[in-house]
Recover the amino acids of this structure.
């Protein structure tokens, strides 16, 4: 749960200024450890992957955070690249641990078929504070573009850009949680000085495809695989999920690049954003991690079969 009491910050109807953002930041407290829960698992994979630091975030009194990526040990420039990202929104736990679970349990099966590049926890400050934003009250997943003001987004952007044109697939692992409606969306409205418009939270797993590069077969393959692990989200009565038209079972579409989304940074043929629902009484935390890992495997299998 988020700690920010957004109702007490700023003036209703007016965007937050810098002082109000600092007031918001002061309310955020560390609730878990990036080093103990994430970095230790990355370190344990050093015998099987090349682990590199691709950036560092200096957040003053909140600490410094080294950003890590993992690459296939036997990288082959003749092979295409698949990117797996998690924790772009740090509070979305299975995005981080699902990416790590894929690397620990499944990645070896793809050796010699594709070069794997993984950034399991893009936003470690948000991971520790169980928050969607970074400490500057920026959403990293709306800031993936050149000269991004979000350090998390800029670091990943700089890692990926020299490899553009070589990516076959990028899967970005996310969650949609009850706190999106109870905390984030009201907080977003307050930050931007806009009225809060209530919405709904889908019960189940769904995908976001790229409206400018739709790949329905790829999305369907992932949905079919994940349906064996956890339930797929049904549309609302107006045939939408979170307000977007459903184009296939459990699939909606966004313009990845226009919105500055992580899934739009590679130019890959096959791209998607997963959305797990961890607050469902029908899903356990392990099922959520399993669903993320299954999504990565199914995406890779389809992309390689149709490359």
């Amino acid at each position: 749960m988020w700690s920010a009491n957004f109702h007490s910050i700023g003036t209703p109807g007016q965007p937050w200024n810098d002082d109000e953002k600092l007031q918001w930041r002061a309310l955020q407290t560390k609730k878990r450890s990036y080093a103990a829960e994430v970095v230790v698992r990355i370190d344990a994979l050093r015998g099987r992957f090349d682990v590199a630091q691709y950036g560092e975030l200096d957040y003053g009194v909140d600490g410094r955070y080294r950003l890590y990526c993992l690459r296939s040990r036997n990288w082959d420039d003749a092979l295409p690249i698949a990117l797996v990202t998690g924790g772009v929104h740090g509070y979305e736990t299975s995005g981080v641990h699902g990416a790590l679970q894929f690397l620990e349990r499944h990645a070896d099966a793809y050796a010699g078929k594709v070069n794997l590049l993984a950034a399991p926890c893009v936003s470690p400050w948000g991971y520790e504070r169980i928050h969607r934003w970074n400490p500057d009250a920026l959403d990293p997943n709306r800031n993936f573009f050149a000269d991004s003001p979000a350090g998390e987004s800029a670091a990943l952007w700089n890692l990926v850009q020299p490899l553009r044109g070589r990516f076959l697939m990028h899967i970005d692992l996310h969650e949609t949680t009850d706190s999106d409606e109870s905390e984030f969306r009201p907080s977003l409205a307050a930050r931007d000085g806009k009225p809060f418009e209530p919405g709904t939270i889908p019960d189940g797993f769904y995908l976001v495809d790229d409206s400018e590069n739709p790949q329905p077969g790829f999305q369907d393959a992932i949905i079919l695989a994940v349906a064996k692990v956890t339930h797929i989200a049904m549309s609302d009565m107006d045939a939408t999920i979170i307000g977007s038209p459903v184009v296939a079972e459990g699939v909606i579409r966004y313009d990845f690049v226009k919105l500055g989304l992580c899934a739009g940074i590679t130019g890959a043929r096959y791209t998607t954003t997963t959305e797990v629902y961890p607050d469902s009484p029908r899903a356990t935390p392990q099922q959520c991690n399993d669903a993320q890992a299954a999504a990565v495997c199914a995406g890779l299998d389809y992309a390689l079969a149709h490359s």
